Amino acid sequence: MEEASNVLFSIGPLEVSGSVVTMWFMMLVVTLLSILATRNMKDVPGKLQNVAEMAVGGLRNYFTGTLGKELCEKYFPVFATFFIFIIVSNYSGLLPGAGHFRVFHVPTANLSVTVGLAVIAFFTTHIIGIREKGFKKYFIGMLTSMTIPLFFLAIIEQVVRPFSLALRLYGNLYGEEAVTENLYSIFPVVVPLVMQILSILFCLIQVLVFTMLLSIYVREAAEKEE
Questions:
Q1: Per-residue CA distances from 185 to 83, 90, 94, 172, 178 (Å)
Q2: What is the dihedral of CA 97, 99, 103, 106, to 10 degrees?
Q3: What CA–CA distance (Å, rounded) separates 85 from 94?
Q4: How high is the mean pLDDT in each 10-residue block of the chain (226 residues)?
Q5: Which 3 state secondary structure label does DSSP give 44?
Q6: Backbone angle region of 109, left / alpha / beta, with phi > 0 → left and psi within -120 to 50 → alpha
Q7: How far is the C-alpha of 14 from the C-alpha of 11, rounded, in Å?
Q8: Other CB atoms closer than 10 Å to residue 210's CB: what's the count?
Q9: CA within 20 to 30 Å of 212's CA: 52, 60, 119, 166, which one?
Q10: The pTM is what?
């Protein structure tokens, strides 16, 4: 399926695709929910504030388990943003009208979006590593701890890691969307409903894999030698 077929309209030379429209919609909904949940914070929280606090607490515990308490306290907003963006993107496929060639298009089923995530993940890993260890210790330490060929292999590995995460996320989400749509054209009643139910678990697994591995990579990069 060609990406051009997903273009909905143009703003001058810029083509706006269903993925972009979906991300605008996601940002609007998440922003509004965040404002509503936090505008009147109370000691005895209401339903929306309670849900928000449970979500933030759950994410904090999750990332503490992979990053460690110190790194999680410092960089929690970054990793929480990754998690929220990816999981909301994945579940946008459940919106009415979602799918290929329609108004809403799952952003994480778009290679451009996942490559963008890979670039951000790459810089996140190394910026945190430099901040925690210092520029000299981070890069010179890598060079002095191994031979030159192994050093270049390590550099290649650092580049490949985030892009492998992005390609895995893209491939799984794109494949799930394509399979669901093809099944819908063949079995329009029962099978697509079963796939939608399974996709709820499937989309959660994908965000857990992406964020867990990214957290491990960051922890390795920031780990200080005793």
A1: 32, 22, 17, 20, 11
A2: 120
A3: 15
A4: 57 76 88 86 79 91 92 94 92 68 76 91 92 82 63 78 88 80 72 76 90 92 72
A5: coil
A6: alpha
A7: 5
A8: 24
A9: 52
A10: 0.82
